[in-house]
Amino acid sequence: MTWTKKSHQEIKEIVFSALDKNVNYSTKGVLGIPASYLDDKVFNQDDAFLDNAPYISSLIKNPNHIGCHTRGSSESFFSGTQQIERDLIEMCAVDILKGKPMEFDGYVASGGTEANIQAIWIYRNYFVREHNAQLNEITILCSADSHYSMDKAGNLLVLDVHKVPVDLDTREVAEVDVLETIKTAKQQGKKYFIVISNMMTTMFGSVDSVQSYTNALAKEEVEYKLHIDGAYGGFYYPFTEGDTSLNFRNEHITSVTLDAHKMAQAPYGTGIFLIRKGFIQYANTQEASYVEGEDCTLIGSRSGANAVAIWMILTKNGPFGW
């Protein structure tokens, strides 16, 4: 287990040590670095309270976590806080979602919407590159209660969205309805399915039966990739349901969205995207050649302080205090 409870003093030492490993804007020129120091007329960097405030200090130091830090080289100017983000991704993938160590990529996104779009973007590109799929052959398959980010992703990525009806009392997705929706999509020429299963929906807190999807997809013998939208339930459901198939023990699940600024009580801008190794490169932007390690994320530049915030919350409480 990589997730352990730490004292405030331990947290301070780790965060301040990480910040010391980052580039210091006060002593080193920032020309040529994808970075910017904050306006010290507004953001006072000498206040004494910062010595006891690792998160606020991280905000003031303003590390740029551009790119994805779990897959090789990244901007060396921010190596200290990047390690905190890598540790956070491992905690979430392994300790919360029961994956195997060192088998996941991921990053702290702006929120669940971005993380869901990131997954759909990756799988769209995967089907295009590996199966020579046309965009009109790919569809997003989700429930009628799924978050609006699925529609936003369809609009942005030029993909149709097929929605499975839900039981109006239980909000459950039935396998027979998934089958009918897949058959309808196939009749419309769809061959490749980007499937979203909900780990607690925003409006109802309902949880999809992932087997309803995987059983139907197997019966129809279609190519698919399965993403779990745990933006609402990711920091709640895994701790209330001991025996669940909505984690990385399920070989059908390739990626998961979590959202720390909901149940984990983190600041806004702290969504989390997690995906098995071997897929995030389908979103790599090689044109980002000035970025060391290039960029596989949708958002590009990101505040390293957001990763520090989530890591601090998890380590302050520990896995059993959760």
CATH architecture of the largest domain: 3-Layer(aba) Sandwich
Which regions are unreliable across 5 or more consecutive residues at pLDDT < 50?
none
Helix content: 25-40%
What is the number of helices? 9
Strand order across the biggest sheet? 1-7-6-5-4-2-3
Radius of gyration, whole Å: 20 Å
CATH class bucket of the largest domain: Alpha Beta
Query: Could you say which structural class the secondary elements and strand pairing correspond to?
Result: alpha/beta
What's the helix-strand series?
Answer: HHHEHEHEHEHEHEEH
CATH topology of the largest domain: Aspartate Aminotransferase, domain 2
Number of strands: 7
In short:
By secondary structure, this protein is of the alpha/beta class.
Q: What does this 3D model show about the protein?
A:
- The longest helix is centred in the middle third of the chain and has 20 residues.
- The protein folds into 2 domains: 130 residues, no CATH class; 149 residues, 3-Layer(aba) Sandwich (Aspartate Aminotransferase, domain 2).
- Helix 5 links the parallel strand 2 and strand 3.
- The mean pLDDT is 94.
- Helix 1 packs parallel to helix 2 and helix 4 crosses helix 5.
- The protein contains 9 helices and 7 strands; from the N terminus they run αααβαβαβαβαβαββα.
- It has a 7-stranded mixed beta sheet with strand order 1-7-6-5-4-2-3, with helices on both faces.
- By secondary structure, it is α/β, with parallel strands linked by helices.
- The chain is globular, with a radius of gyration of 20 Å.
